[in-house]
């Protein structure tokens, strides 16, 4: 089967979800759009189960921390339709104060470890996950290391001053 066009995906999503997704862009040809935490589970199920789209392969789930924004955590999903040879990226912004989003493990068992890793490093709570515990960091760790909440370097270290590096 041939490749489905990005506009066809946008049209199907518009027909199904109306204005519940926004900002479709195509960086490097990869259709990217945004939705909300209360729509993402339904949208992922639609993309996976639609008889034309067939986004049956979950490539990745991760997050990005934008500390300067109100909804500072952005959960990012990458889906691949093997039959149509096309990929999409879906972004969902959530606040750090309540970083909750529905789990995708009900659709893809492979989401289990991806969500655990995203929880471990960013603190995203995947509601409905069967075993949301740390996967790479120590169990008693109290911070989420990929959040941009701490200075990268100690500003008092003299061996790290810019003039030593020609800056």
Number of domains: 1
The helix/strand order is: HEEHEEEEHE
CATH fold annotation? Beta Polymerase, domain 2
Question: What is the end-to-end distance?
Answer: 53 Å
Number of strands: 7
Classified by CATH, the class is Alpha Beta
Q: How many helices?
A: 3
Q: Could you tell me the strand content as a percent range?
A: 25-35%
Evaluate the radius of gyration: 19 Å
Mean pLDDT: 92
Strand order of the largest sheet: 1-2-5-4-3
Shape verdict: globular
Structural class, by secondary structure, is: alpha/beta
Sheet with most strands: 5 strands, mixed
How would you name the oligomeric state of the polypeptide chains in this document? single chain
In CATH, the homologous superfamily goes by the name NADH:ubiquinone oxidoreductase Nqo5 subunit
Please identify, by name, the CATH architecture. 2-Layer Sandwich
- Runs in which pLDDT lies below 50 for 5 or more consecutive residues are none
The amount of helix comes to 10-25%
Q: How would you concisely characterize the structure shown here?
A:
The chain is built from 3 helices and 7 strands.
Write the SSE topology:
Elements: H1 6-17, E1 21-25, E2 31-35, H2 40-49, E3 57-65, E4 73-81, E5 86-94, E6 100-102, H3 111-122, E7 125-127
Parallel strand pairs: 2-5, 6-7
Antiparallel strand pairs: 1-2, 3-4, 4-5
Task: Describe the protein in words.
By secondary structure, the chain is α/β, with parallel strands linked by helices. The protein starts with 5 loop residues before the first helix and ends in a 40-residue tail after the last strand. The model has no long low-confidence stretch (mean pLDDT 92). It has a single domain (6-148), classed as 2-Layer Sandwich (Beta Polymerase, domain 2), CATH 3.30.460.80. Strands 1-2-5-4-3 form a five-stranded mixed beta sheet. 20% of the residues lie in helices and 26% in strands. It has three helices and seven strands.
